[in-house]
Each structure stands twice: as structure tokens, then as C-alpha cells.
Amino acid sequence: MTDQEILAGLGEIVEEIAGVPADEVTPNKSFVEDLDIDSLSMVEIAVAAQDKFGVEIPDDQLKDLATVQDVVNFVAKNSEGSA
Amino acid sequence: MTVERETVVVTGLGATTPLGGDVASTWAAMLAGRSGVTTITQPWAEELPVRIAASAAVDPAEVVGRVQARRMDRCEQFALVAAREAWADAGAPQADPERVGVAVTTGIGGIGSTLTAYDALREKGWRRISPYTVPMLMPNGAAGWISMEIGARAGAHAVVSACASGAEAIGYGVDMIRLGRADVVLAGGTEAAIMPLNIGAFAVMGAMSTRNDEPQRASRPWDKARDGFVLGEGAGVLVLESLSHARQRGATIYAIAAGAGYSSDAYHIAHPAPDGSGVIAAITRAIADSGIDPAQLVHVNAHATSTPEGDVVEAQALAKALGSAADGVVVTSTKSMTGHLLGGAGAIESVAAILALRERVAPPTINLDDIEDDVPVDIATEARPLRPRSGSMAVLNNAFGFGGHNVSLVFTAP
Asked: What is the DSSP string of A15-68?
């Protein structure tokens, strides 16, 4: 999975759950400050990401994933590790 | 000691019901005597003894939008839709947010969300429960959402008393203004309980109509052939306002929210006291609180749900409470058309009572073909004009709930 594929998949998830258009989900955006996504919706996004990418994002790490790029990196790193 | 009390008026109405997605369509359907009851088409109904319900005319998820609908129970969505309409109808008052309150409640709460979450827990595990589940199932969720929508910061409340909840919330809203806690309050009730669990649970009590082959004929208060209530869904919200605040901003005033009366039967958790003493007390106290002469009453929107037990008790209690003033009061049960909205009932029926007062016409009780012998009040079987009897016109709305809760509200012409 390339970073670009993860980013596109994450965009679809965020649009579905939070109603933010997928093309606004760009690497440098902060979920809370730029995309106006609250912590409850982040939990939903994390679970959906697990379904889509097969990478579990534990709650204690979720809070450290502030930007879109943070999640892309986390997924890329952990999907490589598990492959 | 007498204290100069703030007069509370109604300046906005909102509703989404089985008859229409707003007040105008609901009211037009009521006057036309149209039933909102249909066959439940979902597969889950096939195994239940009750396969009819009064589903909302307009899906609230379509109105609030997909993303917001994910985070709100259907009952919260209904309430938000009705609150928006009421607020716009009141002219979107420019008021100090610290002086705007909410009193919007439900009888049951977010039962659909509870069931969905439990299915997710059992089938997929706890991680698959929506993180919005708690705010979706809590009965105060609607009040919270509305407070955010309007920016109401004087307090958001959800008093719960089963099927009396919507009326009690209106009484609570009146009190908030009388006590000086707020100038404007959105008050009402909502329900979205057309679910297999609720239908099964009410059916096992013997409370629901099983007239599955004739859905539109199933809700028939005071008729000899009635066999239980029909479950409805939706919401009603009033904008209550202090008279001084409403006058200051030149608001249109529908009615005076003149008074509320409460009682508790202290008799049985689900059966009404057969002597109607609690109902008589609530009506009597509402009349006293409003300061009207009973002869001013022209119309009662009754609680009458089409159960064999309750309808007659209420009619007799009404006759006793009003005495000689009962003659000339036009009584109706709009549940014959909307079904029973549980915690939403008192709210949408207050909307109907206020419109009856304003437009001087009582909506009919449909399906009343063969009235019970011992109903000592005048029931409108067709839309009936209302005329002043003695002084300014007053109307009354009753709402009763399991637990023995009785609430009566009085509205008078402005």
C-alpha cells in the first residue's frame, strides 16, 4: 500500500464519518483544528481504518495522531510490519 | 403573599408527525381527518402481533443530513427538526443566550440507538459500538442538541414522565420563565420508538391495537370497538416567551401558556386509577394555576389513546372536574389520526390545541362510529367550529403516563 493509497482510503473514511469532502483530507491537516473532527468521531475513524487497512490503531496511540499525515505514517509503518 | 408573575406566551410552533413534516401539513391533515397509520413493512414486524404504526411522514435523517444523522438518535433528529421550525416560526428571536432555555424531552429515549449498539456489541465486539451511542440513547440528548443549535445557555432540561413527558416539559418551560430563569424557552417532546422491542413490550401488556387488517381504523378513542393504542413517532416544540420579551420584539403571539396542573395517581405503575381522581386533580390544578373560569374552556385535546381502560376514565374525570362548565366544551383525541407519540404526544397535542384556539376549530376524533355509553362529554367526530362562551377562549391539553403521571396544560387566547 502506497502513502497515496492510504491517503485516498482515509479521505473516503473521513468523508463517510465526518462529512468532510475527501479532497480536503490532505496530509498537513489537523483532524481537530482543520477538519473540525471531535474525539468521538476519531474513534469511529480509527475503527473504520482498521477495517480498511487491516491496521489496528490502539486508543493510547490514537490521541497522538494529530494530522492526516500522522495516520498515513502509522498505517504505512504498521502494515509493512505485519506483512 | 402574592408575587407578580410573568405572563408566558407561545410565539412559535414546530412539529414533525405521522401526518406531515411540519406544523402546516400536520394541521391540515388533522382538520381533514386523515389517518397517519399504515402497515409496518419491515420484516421484523412479521412475527409480532402488532404490524401497524403511525410512522413519521418525513424521515428526519433526510432533513438533518447524513453526517448529523449518524450522531443523533432518530428521536433527537425529530426534536431538532421541530425545534428549528418553531424557532424560525418565532422569528429566530435575538435574545441573550444566557436567557434562552430548552425543555425538550422524550418518554423512552434513544431506544433505536440502544438496540443498534447492543447488536454491535454481541455480533462484532465492543470496539464496534458507535462512540456516539451514549449521547444517542440518553433521554436528555435532544435537549442538548437543541441547546447547541440555538445557542441556548439558560439550561437544557428533560423531565421524564412516560407519555406525559412532552406536556410536563412545556410546564417546566413555563416555570423557567415564571421563575425568572429565562426569557425564551424551547419546550416539547419527541419519540422514535417504532421498534420491535417496544411494540413487543407494549403488546405483551395488552395495550396495543391488533387491528392489522385496517390500519387507518385502528386508533379509535372512545369507540366501543377500540382495542388499544397505535404507536406513533415524531416531535412537537413550542417557543415559550415572557410576554414582556415578546412584546419588546414585536413577536406574533399564538396564545398565552396560562397554566399547568400536575398530579400522581399513587395507584398502579401502568393502570390509571379507575376513579379518575388523579386526572381530576391535574385538570383542577391547571385551571386554578391559569386563573381561568372553567366556563372559558371551549376545547380539550384529550389524552385518550384508544385503550379500553383509559379513554372512559378520562372523559368521566373531565366531566367531574369541569362540572356544569363541561357542557359546551368540544373534546377531541387527535391520536385517532397521529397514533400515540408517547413522550411526544403532549407536545404535538399542545400544538394542535393552540392552533384550535387560534383558528377557532377543533380537529375531529376519527373512527368514532359507536361511542361508549358512559362518555359524558361532547366529542367532535368532524372538525367543529369553536366560539367564545364566557370571556376569552381557553383550551386544555391532557397527557398521562405510566407511573401514574397526569399533566394538564391550559392555553388562552392572547
From this structure: HHHH---GGG--TT-BTTTTT---HHHHHHHHHHHHHHHS----HHHHTT--BH
Q: From chain A, pick out residues whose CB is under 8 angstroms from the CB of B72.
A: none
Q: Which residue of B has its CA nearest to A56?
A: B127
pTM of the model: 0.96
Q: What is the 3-state secondary structure (H, E, C) of B261-274?
A: EEEECCCCCCCCCC
Of residues B157, B299, B303, B405, which has the active-site annotation?
Answer: B303
pLDDT digits (tens, 9 = 90+) for B399-410: 999 999 999 999
Determine the topology of domain A3-76 in CATH. 1.10.1200
B chain contacts of residue A40, beta-carbon cutoff 8 Å? 71, 131-132
Put simply, the answer to whether A43 touches B131 (Cβ < 8 Å) is yes
Domain identity same for B268 and B295:
yes
CATH number at residue B391: 3.40.47.10
Total domain count, chain B: 2
The verdict on residue B255 lying in a domain is: no
**Angle at CA of residue B218, ends B214 and B222, nearest 5°:** 145
Residue whose cell numbers read 397527557? B399
Instruction: Tell me the C-alpha distance between B407 and B161, whole Å.
Output: 9
pLDDT along chain B (414 residues), means of 10: 82 98 98 98 96 98 94 98 98 97 98 97 95 97 98 98 98 98 98 97 97 98 98 98 98 98 97 96 98 97 96 98 96 98 98 98 98 96 96 97 98 97
Residue B2 domain-assigned?
Answer: no
Its ipTM equals 0.87
In the block, residue with C-alpha cell 498537513: A28
B157 CA: distance to closest CA in chain A (Å) = 23
Asked if residue B254 is part of any domain, the answer here is no
Q: pLDDT digits over B314-345, tens only?
A: 999 999 999 999 999 999 999 999 999 999 99
Q: Is the same domain home to B242 and B275?
A: no
Please give the helix or strand (H or E) that residue B176 lies within, else none. helix B165-178
User: Structural domain of residue B366, as residue ranges?
Assistant: 260-412
Residues of chain A with Cβ-Cβ distance to B66 below 8 Å are: 19
**Nearest-5° Cα angle at B20, B134 to B362:** 115
Chain B interface includes A19 (CB < 8 A): yes
Testing the interface with B: which of A44, A50, A56, A59 to mutate, by most B Cβ within 10 A?
Answer: A44
Task: Check whether residue B244 and residue B271 sit in a common domain.
Answer: no
Neighboring chain A residues of B132 at a CB cutoff of 8 Å: 40, 44
CA distance A21 to chain B (A): 12
| pLDDT at residue number B4 | 75
Distance separating alpha carbons of residues B260 and B137, to the nearest angstrom:
29
